[in-house]
């Protein structure tokens, strides 16, 4: 069940979770930082109780600046944290799991955000701790992410684990439990998809410059247009979910902007002629296949 609707425009309310005093990340890079920033903004965990580990110090400045702990030894994370998030690259997951398998764990729940890596890769190595496989994106840092997860079952703590994951992820993102088989496609839509939105923004901003606007104005207009479209579509989606007959869906919202013989339909014709929909579908398909490949390595 979704814990945050597509229309949520406000930042999440402070969401301290009694069972979670500390969260640690193995891997201190972009995704770990996006999650940590979100958890801090949402008030889930105090900064001094957030930890990260990485071999080098190149990402340590972020963690120190935010009052978090940064260490080199991966084992320090599960030894000190209620939740451990594996946030290193997919090929590193088996060796990191092996490193921490023999550790005396404080951690009650492991999470992995690695694209494509199946739960089984981890549960074959670490058998005594529940593991959640999560696909999210970097908008978690502004509490506007899109997350999906699946969770190993069969522990006495199953219900509590589910509640913790929904509370944590729900405070920084839309959050939905899914079947593991869906996660490669989800990686393509929400994990990678955010980059496609940025590319579209860049293209819009460049186009504005081409037709004579200043870059600054073109960037602002492009950004507010995308944000406005997302807000409008989000409200419409919420109405649809509430069973309101007047909800429109993406197509009707687009049609509403197209006056007969007008500017928008002329522009849309160009997009269709150049295969805009097909190229977006190809991109999502390619990213899905890549996620599957990463899981096989
Ligand atoms: N970025 C995204 O938008 C996104 C979205 C969805 C999922 N993900 C997933 O998130 C994971 C991390 O991606 P990222 O973009 O955050 O990558 P990143 O910025 O390159 O960060 C990777 C981190 O892993 C650390 N690391 C490397 N080897 C390690 C080891 N043996 N033990 C512990 N840490 C190690 C790196 O250390 P150094 O700091 O020393 O280099 C770095 O801090 C990936 O599995 C990716 O599939 C990312």
Automatic annotation (TrEMBL):
Pathway: Amino-acid biosynthesis; L-proline biosynthesis; L-proline from L-glutamate 5-semialdehyde: step 1/1. It comes from the Eukaryota. Its EC number is 1.5.1.2. One of its GO terms (biological process) is L-proline biosynthetic process. One of its GO terms (molecular function) is pyrroline-5-carboxylate reductase activity. NADP(+) binds at residues 26-31, 87-90. Keywords: Amino-acid biosynthesis, NADP, Oxidoreductase, Proline biosynthesis. NADPH binds at residue 74. It catalyses: L-proline + NADP(+) = (S)-1-pyrroline-5-carboxylate + NADPH + 2 H(+). InterPro entries: 6-PGluconate_DH-like_C_sf (IPR008927), NAD(P)-bd_dom_sf (IPR036291), P5C_Rdtase_cat_N (IPR028939), P5CR-like_CS (IPR053790), P5CR_dimer (IPR029036), Pyrroline-COOH_reductase (IPR000304). The keyword DNA repair does not apply. Belongs to the pyrroline-5-carboxylate reductase family. This is Pyrroline-5-carboxylate reductase. It comes from Cyprideis torosa.
């Amino acid at each position: 069940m979704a814990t945050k609707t597509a229309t949520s425009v406000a930042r999440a309310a402070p969401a301290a979770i009694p069972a979670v005093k500390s969260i640690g990340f193995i891997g201190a890079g972009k995704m770990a930082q996006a999650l940590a920033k979100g958890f801090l903004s949402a008030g889930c965990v105090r900064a001094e109780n957030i930890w990260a580990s990485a071999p080098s110090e190149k990402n340590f400045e972020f963690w120190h600046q935010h009052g978090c702990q940064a260490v080199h030894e991966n084992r320090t994370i599960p030894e000190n944290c209620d939740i451990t998030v594996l946030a290193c690259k997919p090929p590193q997951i088996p060796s990191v799991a092996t490193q921490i398998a023999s550790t005396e764990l404080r951690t009650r729940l492991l999470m992995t955000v690695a694209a494509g890596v199946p739960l089984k890769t981890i549960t074959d190595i670490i058998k005594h701790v529940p593991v959640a496989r999560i696909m999210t994106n970097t908008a978690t840092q502004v509490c506007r992410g899109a997350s999906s997860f699946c969770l190993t079952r069969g522990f006495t703590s199953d219900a509590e684990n589910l509640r913790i994951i929904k509370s944590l992820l729900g405070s920084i993102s839309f959050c939905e439990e899914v079947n593991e088989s869906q996660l490669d496609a989800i990686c393509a839509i929400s994990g990678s998809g955010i980059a496609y939105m940025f590319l579209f923004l860049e293209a819009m901003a460049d186009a504005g410059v081409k037709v004579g606007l200043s870059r600054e104005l073109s960037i602002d207009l492009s950004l507010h247009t995308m944000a406005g479209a997302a807000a409008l579509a989000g409200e419409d989606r919420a109405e649809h979910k509430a069973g309101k007959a007047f909800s429109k869906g993406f197509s009707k919202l687009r049609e509403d902007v197209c006056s007969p013989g007008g500017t928008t339909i002329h522009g849309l014709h160009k997009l269709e002629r150049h295969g805009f929909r097909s190229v977006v579908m190809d991109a999502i398909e390619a990213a899905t296949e890549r996620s599957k490949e990463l899981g096989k390595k």
